[in-house]
Design goal:
This protein is an all-alpha fold. Helix content is 82%, strand content 0%.
Length: 195
């Protein structure tokens, strides 16, 4: 039992309080950074999503115009080639490319892929940003757990320092403080790193 009394030593308790305080502050700072990064990537994700939605609507309008231009071109091709040429000059590049690939199958999948390419690029960027925000969120959550464990250890060390040196409660609180420090360090080592 006397060998355990060293846990109640004022130097040990003071060191525990200092280490736990620094580790608590460090985990809190890193958690704040992770929360900020999560917020940044969520904003980027929302921005890309909004831009993607706008591009998607624009692409829908382009497709509708292409349908109208193509119909008018086709209707005037034989009898009024000058009017047909006017409508053909208004075709979008994806429609011209589709006609060049296969004039009989103009509205192929490639046409739609080309027309929606910008919108899909924004959607992909949005998904990537939301995924990165999720990674930062996971990191922040784990750091909050570290913060909680370290703060609990700090409370144990503080209580131990207030109890008389001969008391068994001082030893118990000191032991709890050491255990929470070890657990906190182990949890910290498992915190995911965001690349």
């Amino acid at each position: 039992m006397k060998s355990l009394r060293v846990l109640g030593n004022e130097v040990i308790l003071g060191s525990l309080i200092a280490i736990l305080s620094v580790f608590t502050a460090f985990a809190s700072y890193q958690g704040s950074v992770a929360d900020g990064k999560q917020n940044d990537f969520e904003i980027l994700g929302m921005t890309s999503l909004n831009d993607g939605n706008a591009e998607y609507l624009r692409a829908n309008q382009d497709i509708t115009q292409d349908y109208n231009y193509f119909d008018n071109w086709y209707l005037n091709l034989e009898e009024r080639p000058d009017i047909a040429e006017y409508y053909q000059s208004s075709f979008s590049q994806p429609l011209l490319d589709a006609m060049e690939r296969d004039p009989d199958t103009v509205w192929d999948e490639q046409y739609y892929d080309d027309t929606y390419a910008d919108a899909n690029a924004y959607f992909d960027e949005s998904d990537a940003n939301f995924a990165k925000a999720g990674e930062w969120n996971d990191r922040g959550d784990r750091l909050q757990l570290v913060l909680m464990v370290m703060a609990l250890g700090l409370a144990f060390a503080a209580w131990a320092s207030l109890v008389k040196e001969e008391s068994r409660m001082r030893l118990l609180f000191s032991a709890f403080a050491i255990v929470t420090l070890i657990v906190g360090v182990l949890i910290y080592m498992s915190v995911p790193v965001v690349a």
